[in-house]
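Our collaborator T.R. sent over the components below with a one-line note: 'Predict the complex.' Nothing else. No constraints on interfaces, no templates requested, no preferences about which chain binds where. So this is a plain run: every listed entity goes in together, and whatever single assembly comes back becomes the starting point for the next discussion.
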Amino acid sequence: MRNLKTFASLATLVPVPCLLLSLVHGGLWAFVGLLYMTFFAFLVDESVQTDDGNSSPVSHIDNFIGAVVPLVQGLSHLMLLPLVIFVTATGTGFGPVEFVLIFMAFSLYFGTFSISNAHEMIHRSGRLHHFLGKWVFISLLFGHHVTAHLAVHHRFVATDKDPNSARLDESFHRFFRRAWQGSFWAGLQVENERLRLLGRRAMHPANPYFIYLIGAVVLLGLAGAVAGLTGVLIYVALAFFAQLQLLLSDYVQHYGLRRHKLAGRQVEPVSARHSWNAPHWFSSLMMVHAPRHSDHHTHPAKTYPALLCMPKSDAPRLPYSIPVMSCLALVPVLWRRVMNPRVALWQNQS
Amino acid sequence: MLRIFFILIFFPTIAFSQEQSMTPDEFEAYSEGKTLFFSQRNQAYGVEQYLKGRKSIWSFANGTCVRGNWYEEKGLICFVYENNDRPQCWTFLKNGERYSARLPDADPANDLVVIGRTDGPIACKGPDVGV
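Returned assembly:
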């Protein structure tokens, strides 16, 4: 059943019932969700053959599932976020260990699954998808990423003009600060430029940054109104850990790779050689094929069922899955030892 | 229950996801000889009359007319107007009967939506009026 492959993308929705149940029945369900997202995913990644290929054509059913799954995930996210804030801030039934388990499970889900699905959605031209993806990012207090990702990262990827393309030897901690504010300001510049093209002044009300910022403030205010200061703190912490995971995957997916300069002020066009890929089938599904990163950058209009995992001779490949590499990125000494030789290998190919 | 859920998701998904970008030929067929009225966020934004040979006359809702022409580059429709050297490149989109123009990668909420398409010429404020 070829469509089994695309039905498997429901993997990105599996944690939702676990997370919901954890709010009612406590830490055990959070633990189950965590196990699924970490240990189980790791086991399946290691035991299933990595997914080189996937050249089968995309059917209507694939496209339908590919359109619906991110929508369902986005709606689930917008339901889960206020629930977890409310329940953990006002609930008295959780012990500290339970609270930690629940917090970890939710922040892992938001940071990896919600963000991957929202990323898929903002890339689509359909208004519904873009709207929902935008609001998932705003809900994670990261609205500016919508502009910055599409109009800065995709335009300038693998050059120093992209704040979200990590430089060689740059530690993740340094990258986090630089990319966060760099993308904020670069995105704002893009929006003001667009307004000028439309014959409007900078910071005209049509600037999406108003929605990003006011949306965040309103949501924080709602959290405070409903769940008090504790609620706001939990919200900020969840958002922070989600953003951390997003920037970790940006770091991991472009570290050290740079487009070569051409004559004059040009750089070579984006090719498969400018992204790091991970062929692990299961974690890739959980992240709606975000790890098929080279194909995504060379064909950003492709929806996730159509993304190809490129062969390792054509596109840089990470030694471990994205989640594992993200953990490694937190230890700069180890990270450089593993990755710098690989960067050199790819950079020296013309 | 699950079936109802998926059906509910199905229709808006299909309705809102059938946006297609128009090729330059499609855009030319749609626009040539016509005058398009654009709104942004439900407010009148501007009007453009499209003439043969990929020429056009643009006016903001409260502005004077400027002449320009368009060409295709990298799949986008780029306009150059007499008052500005820099080309502005757009994607023109069609979703059923909804036509709109969008700057590359921009928020669909800021689309210039076509709210009228007539055969009549653009009404220009003086001094340079009409074709």
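Summary for T.R.: Chain B has one domain: 20-118.
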